[in-house]
Amino acid sequence: MHKFHSVFVSHDGRVFSCGHGQGGRLGLGSEVATLTPSAVRLQNSDGPSVACTMACVGRDHTVLLTENGTVSLVNCWRGFVMTLFCKMNRVGN
What we know:
Shape: globular
Number of helices: 0
Number of domains: 1
Helix content: under 10%
Structural class: mainly beta
Oligomer: single chain
Number of strands: 7
Radius of gyration: 13 Å
C-alpha cells in the first residue's frame, strides 16, 4: 500500500489494484482513479495468464514477481504490464 495506490495479491496469484490512476500506475490501461480493486491482467509473452507471488509498490509504479520467476513492472506512463527480466532464481530454501 502506498499513499497513491494499493496492490493486492490473492492466494491464487491474481493481482488487483486501486487508487489514483495518474500515469497508468494501476496497470488497468487508463489513468482513471478507482476506489474498488480491479484485476490487473498478467500474461506470459506467449499469451497464457501467469500467477503473481509478490508485489511491491512505489509512488509511480508497481513491481510484480510471478510464480515462474519473471519480474514485471506496471508501466507508470502507459498503464500496462511489461516484463523486465526473464528469470529470477531463488537462493536458499
